[in-house]
Amino acid sequence: MRWAYEGVIFEPSGVDHSSPGSSFVVGGQIVRKVFGGEQPIGPMYAFVGISGMAKMSSSKGGVPTPGDALKIMEAPLLRWLYARRKPNQSFKIAFDQEIQRLYDEWDKLEAKVAEGTALPADAAAHSRAARTAAGELARTPRPLPYRTLASVVDITAGHDEQTLRILADLDPENPVTSLEETRPRLDRAEHWINTQVPAEQRTIVREEPDAEALAALDEQARESLRLLLDGLETHWSLDGLTTLVYGVPKIQAGLDPEAKPTPELKVAQRSFFALLYQLLVGRDTGPRLPTLLLAVGADRVRKLLSA
Length: 307
Fold this sequence. Notes:
This protein has helices at 2-6, 23-33, 66-72, 75-83, 98-115, 120-130, 146-156, 160-170, 185-196, 211-215, 219-231, 238-252, 263-281, 289-296, 298-305; strands at 13-14, 44-45, 48-50, 91-93, 131-132, 135-136. By secondary structure, it is mainly alpha-helical. The strands form three sheets. Strands 1-2 form a two-stranded parallel sheet. Strands 3-4 form a two-stranded parallel ribbon.
């Protein structure tokens, strides 16, 4: 009746309203046969979900809104999640760890767009996400990886001075000199850590060495720690520490530090990583080890790992 009375010509609806026997299908028959009107054009749009939650429902409430999403991710990324899909394609907005992978994808796309190597469809989606008719959306001057920023603010509990110290050490040849270079992405990562990461998953670095665990180490484990500590000074950057932590098991296996990992070597690396996590934060996993080591600081790392 409303379609006929108001002359509605365009009314999109969700997939549940466009399925066989739904309100849109039945309404199309009624408007023509009973009211002499026409069914409007009704493009179907699919559901937008939240990672780990049921579908969004404006009637039920109790789920994050786009405003909540903009507190943990920058506007271009949220727009990109929509812009790269057709309306009838469902997808989820990540409030969990998946947000880190999405940011990695976005940063890779930004790099391709800057180089002019992005596929036309990807470049078009990027353009729709990064700007509006009013102009470019706000950007982070120095967009460090979201997962790195999240790890840093997790460890520092948002302490600005400590955060700047760690970020400056990421690339000593081109250090971050002000946190403003990393905002608003830094603020989004901090909000995500504070509101979306469960307390039991937060990173708490040990205050004192685990003397009992250190005393129980076998000679191979002790040697791996010695190799790591010996290399700290010459590898104190994000890339350098990445090479170091992956290289220690290679050296112990008699391989070149640049050698490609074998299945056996990957097992040894995982064992070495678990050892470091246990001695530094008291559990088997945590933030990426190079970032964790930078955050803890060389002196404290030596204190906690010296057997």
